[in-house]
Amino acid sequence: MLLIDKIRFHTATLVTLSFVLGFCQSEIMASSQQNEDSADISFSIKRKVIHKINPRIFGQFMERPSWGEIGVEGGLIPGTRKLQPGVSKLLEEMEIPIIRFPGGTDVDFMDWRDMIDNIPSRTSQRPVSTGHRGHKVSNNFGYDEFLQFCEEEGAEAILVVNFRDGLLKKKPLKEAAMHAASLVAYCNAPIGAKLPEGMYDWPALRAKNGRARPYKVKYFQIGNETWAFIKNLKEMMPNSAPKFYAECLSSYIEAMRSVDPSIEIIVDGHDADMSGIFEQVHKQTADKVSYFATHFYTPWGITKVFENSREVPIEELSAEEIWRAWIAVTWFDDNGRSVINHPGINAARRGGYKVAVTEWNWNGWWRRSGPDPALNSSFAKGLGAAGYLHAFMRAADVIELGCQSMLVGNSWGIHAIKADVEAKIPPYYMPTGQVTMFYSKHHGEKLLALESSSMPTYKQPYRMGGIGHKEKVAYIDALATADEKLVYFHAINRTFEKSIDVTIDISALGPFEGSAVHHVMEGRLNDAPESNETRQIGRITKREIYFNGKSVTITLPYRSISCIEFKRS
Q1: Does the N terminus or the C terminus of the chain have fewer Cβ atoms within 10 A?
Q2: What tens digit of pLDDT does each residue of 384-399 get?
Q3: 359 has which bridge partners?
Q4: How far apart (Å, rounded) are the C-alpha atoms in residues 153 and 286?
Q5: Is residue 71 within 8 Å of 408, Cβ to Cβ?
Q6: Where are the domains of the chain?
Q7: Which of 416, 419, 406, 405 shows the shortest CA–CA distance to 75?
Q8: Superfamily covering domain 17-568
Q9: Distance (Å, whole) CA 311 – CA 324
Q10: Exposure of 525 by Cβ count < 10 A (0-12 exposed, 13-18 middle, 19+ buried)?
Q11: pTM of the predicted model, to two decimals?
């Protein structure tokens, strides 16, 4: 979570008869909606493997924040530590590979022990925590609940430890590092293990809390967005901040690995201007760190819109103009495809290290008064998020972990699952999370070379919030992946109201069976449901298609993402 002057507004898939009919209607309409811009669009999938794709890039962030949102705490059965049955069902269907927990900004202001039971000398089982802005939040869904949930769902865990205590000398460095190592011991050390001198017997306490076996957590992140503490650190030690930062990291890593040498460490400091600190960190700890973390959030609050230097009255923008801007939030290459042309990602390629995008999402909102804009659509945000996922797959040579923020929520608006704190309204998927679920379920382990022709593009001229103008955005953003059994063609159709036919040539990878499955996600533009609509905005359907085993022409519905799965013979 970001700290500096930023306010985060962060059911199962309902396939009803009306949804199926809606998809069929969009397929039928395709023949009458073609125009010359979409004529003869074709893709040819090649054998060449560009790089592997780690399935962990489709992970989630189960945050427990405190201000304006309480995250997973709001998805519990009121008065209990158990997830609402509807929330559990939706989480199970998401097939999430890896989940980060519990923070976020608050993690650097909290004591991890507040989230477990039976701490010696503590009068209550779990106290209410105070977040970094002074708001209160319960600790009903703690480490045991989270890790047992991950085990049940087959998801790996990333746990984040408090780094601020050591970095800003809230505690002596050795004590702060050992405190972080204690969490490793609680999670991973077997009963009777030899622990560092003076450390409490955390495995025995874990057993007392009902879990004898270690959880075997593999990934631990040290701090969250610690660039926010650099100003304070430099004021404390203006001449030695980089050296001390690296010293703190080394102390934490040494203490944590003294408990479990097998854990993989994620650290901040990947993308911000850290005044020489990142260079020092990389020099002194790169061989001890598995991933350097970065976050991507766009566009934040939108107050004004500009075209070049001219302010454009928002009420003059059409729904389609807003749509075209909102779905174009990444960087774009010369062909108009979503990429991550970010200095930190490029530095990772040069330096040969790996990146974990431990928080990301289409995170933004209209922050203004006056007439409502022509479009304010969560589904537009969902297709914008799909662009990020295409960019991550194209950068999967260095990006190996991804955690979309946030998994369960109530009020910030970017949660994958919207839950009712009082458990009166059934939970349902929101589009950005539903999009990530879609890709998590339908993707291959290898990114294949893909050639295209006659690709229509558009120019996006506006600046609004963190969205900048784009010279070229492809209407169809496509890529291909594969595993041993299937070849996958992924496509975002960014058109506002034009379905598009594309021809896909897979003959270079044959032989294939004469049928394939077309999975598609569509959705409505209005967030508030009409009388005949469900609360869930997006819908996912599938249909079988038949072809000659070499090439096929597919209709991509407007405002949709698709995955066509071709089965090898």
Answers
A1: C
A2: 999 999 999 999 999 9
A3: 295
A4: 32
A5: yes
A6: 17-568
A7: 419
A8: Glycosidases (3.20.20.80)
A9: 18
A10: middle
A11: 0.92
